[in-house]
TrEMBL record:
GO cellular component, one term: cytosol
Gene Ontology molecular-function annotations: oxidoreductase activity
Domain NADP-dependent oxidoreductase: 16-294
UniProt keyword annotations, A-Z: Oxidoreductase
Organism: Paenibacillus endophyticus
PANTHER family cross-referenced by the UniProt entry: NAD(P)-LINKED OXIDOREDUCTASE SUPERFAMILY PROTEIN, NADH-SPECIFIC METHYLGLYOXAL REDUCTASE-RELATED
Signal peptide limits: none
Protein name in the entry: Aryl-alcohol dehydrogenase-like predicted oxidoreductase
Length: 305
């Protein structure tokens, strides 16, 4: 495994993280504690130390599965990133909640679910600029840092070209940006990444496999069940993306290299990107994701020993 410095936090995170939205039950299956344990155990075995989750992945369900696991392991072995700002009601249904008092209640609920005294990276989760520009929110969060409940703040931008929230990071004491970035969606390269580099912000690339489309497993015309979040994607847009994936696989992916590993390594080669946080449905996918490290030969500005 390779490790990089997460911006000015000083945290050393594995370049491959564990995305855990799937633990909340919106990707077509429910997870038992044993299944979650197996995924997290495989991650640790491979040197992965970064877990990304959120309060709205199944009403703290993802956090609870992680928390049960962490309670039986060494907490200091893991860097846990979670998020705030949404209340989960039922599958695919959430409401926003970014007021300062409500966020403190969400934080306490996340700490309880994760069975930990502190969160390493607490992220503003895809909220509107109006909610982001609330000084009371950030003052309240700074007090939670002083209280030891949070180590560092970050922002998970909803639009991957949200320069407003990215540029305001230093002002609100956020040290990292999470953004959609993959071979099919390169928008952050234009404005967001240069701002991140200028401010020394860590960058977590989410959806690095484009919701699994860049895994190479799906062909144009693929159908997803109604319990899978991809069922909600525009069908024509999905068809066009999968046609593009076929072209990329044919023209850009070297023979003998798994497309998923190539796609993750592609993201990690950008000088602004600290880590990718792909989802993984089983230990085999964790192992496949980790193989992307073997495809990264060039030194990176954030590499650490």
């Amino acid at each position: 495994m390779k490790y990089r410095r997460l911006g000015s936090t000083g945290l050393h995170v594995s370049v491959i993280g564990l995305g855990t939205w799937q633990f909340g039950g919106e990707w077509g299956r429910e997870y038992t504690q044993e299944e979650a344990d197996a995924i997290l155990d495989k991650g640790q075995e491979l040197g992965i130390n970064l877990i990304d989750t959120a309060e709205c992945y199944g009403d703290h369900l993802s956090e609870s599965l992680i928390g049960d696991y962490i309670s039986r392991r060494k907490r200091e072995d893991w860097i846990i990133a979670t998020k705030f700002g949404h209340h989960f009601h039922e599958r695919f249904t959430r409401t926003d909640s970014f007021d300062a008092a409500g966020v403190v209640a969400q934080l306490d609920a996340s700490l309880k679910a994760l069975r930990t005294d502190y969160i390493d990276l607490y992220q503003f989760h895809s909220g509107p600029d109006q909610a982001f520009d609330n000084d009371e929110l950030w003052t309240t969060l700074d007090k939670q840092i002083e209280a030891g409940k949070i180590r560092f703040l970050g922002t998970s931008i909803g639009s991957n070209d949200n320069l407003h929230q990215t540029e305001a990071s230093s002002r609100v004491n956020a040290r990292a940006i999470q953004v959609v970035y993959n071979r099919l969606d390169r928008a952050p390269e234009e404005r967001v990444f240069p701002s991140c580099q200028q401010q020394d912000l860590g960058v977590l690339a989410r959806v690095p496999l484009a919701s699994g489309y860049l895994s190479g497993k799906y062909k144009p015309g693929a159908v997803f069940g109604d319990t899978d979040v991809r069922h909600r994607h525009d069908k024509e847009s999905t068809r066009l993306k999968l046609l593009e994936v076929e072209h990329i696989q044919r023209e850009e992916v070297p023979q003998g290299i798994a497309m998923a590993s190539w796609a993750l390594a592609w993201c990690l080669k950008h000088p602004a990107v600290t880590a990718v946080i792909p989802g993984c449905k089983d230990p085999e996918q964790v192992e496949a994701n980790a193989k992307a490290v073997d495809l990264i030969a060039e030194p990176h500005p954030q590499d650490v020993g």
